[in-house]
Write a structure and sequence with these properties.
Helix content is 70%, strand content 0%. It is built from nine helices and no strands.
């Protein structure tokens, strides 16, 4: 019995004929043969990050920070201005961190205000402990070069477990600093974490070591960004991370050296 459904009727009428498409001409076959068997992957629509991008932006950011610190030192910026600059730098730093910003204006703005704070604070320490700033700068440079050598030689490898450990240690350290600060309202020196006592020296040494671990994470982030073809603008985020780590180490080295400096 023949179906009245036009679809079924047509399918039955084409049985035996198959669903043959248009036959290829000899020229079509020749063109197919001439096509390469492998097509290279298309290049990305953006320029990828290179190590030179990180180095150049690093010099720019650190140059801005050092220049603003030097200006604050020479102009003898009041402590009130330094505190306001520190607050502004903290806000800009939090915004850049949580938004993973690659905006050069935001990162350079952070460098300016952080530099003003560091310049004023360094001037105060230098007046009390002559020569301490140079020692802190040298100590920071040695920490940077030492961590770079450790990372380059693969003495310590950055793994997800290490990343979790460093993040947990940082959260714990910030929590202890907050508790110590609250405790200063009830007892002189608080828990003693920021005094020239044995526990203060040990805590400052641990904070310097934590900053060095952050440098390891920064170096790994840069290497992975270059390998995976991250956009060029990602170099700004890498430089921001490096700047944060260096500022952390410098402040902790400055405090650590002060414990062993004579107070005339």
């Amino acid at each position: 019995m023949q179906s009245k459904n036009p679809v079924f009727s047509k399918s039955r009428s084409t049985q035996g004929q198959g669903w043959a498409g248009p036959s290829a001409t000899p020229q079509d076959l020749q063109n197919m043969y001439n096509q390469p068997s492998y097509a290279p992957p298309a290049s990305p629509a953006y320029r990828t990050m290179t190590l030179d991008d990180v180095v150049i932006r690093g010099f720019i950011t650190l140059g801005v920070l050092v220049a603003s610190a030097g200006a604050a030192w020479i102009l003898e910026v009041p402590i009130a201005v330094a505190v306001v600059s520190a607050i502004i730098a903290l806000v800009l730093g939090l915004v850049a961190s949580f938004k993973q910003s690659t905006n050069p204006a935001l990162i350079l703005g952070y460098a300016v205000f952080e530099g003003v704070f560091l310049g004023a604070l360094s001037s105060i320490f230098e007046q009390r402990f002559p020569g301490i700033v140079l020692n802190a700068v040298i100590g920071t440079m040695m920490a940077f070069l030492g961590v770079l050598a450790v990372y380059t030689l693969r003495i310590v490898r950055v793994t997800p477990k290490l990343v979790r450990f460093v993040v947990a240690a940082a959260i714990g350290a910030l929590g202890l600093i907050l508790v110590n600060w609250i405790a200063t309202f009830f007892m002189p020196g608080g828990l003693g974490l920021r005094t020239d006592s044995s526990i203060g020296i040990i805590f400052s040494g641990a904070m310097i070591l934590l900053g060095c671990f952050f440098l390891l994470l920064d170096f790994d982030s840069i290497e992975q960004g270059v390998k995976q073809g991250a956009p060029e603008k990602f170099a700004w985020q890498c430089v921001f991370g490096l700047t944060l780590s260096l500022v952390w180490i410098y402040l902790e080295v400055l405090r650590f050296v002060s414990y062993f400096s004579g107070d005339d």
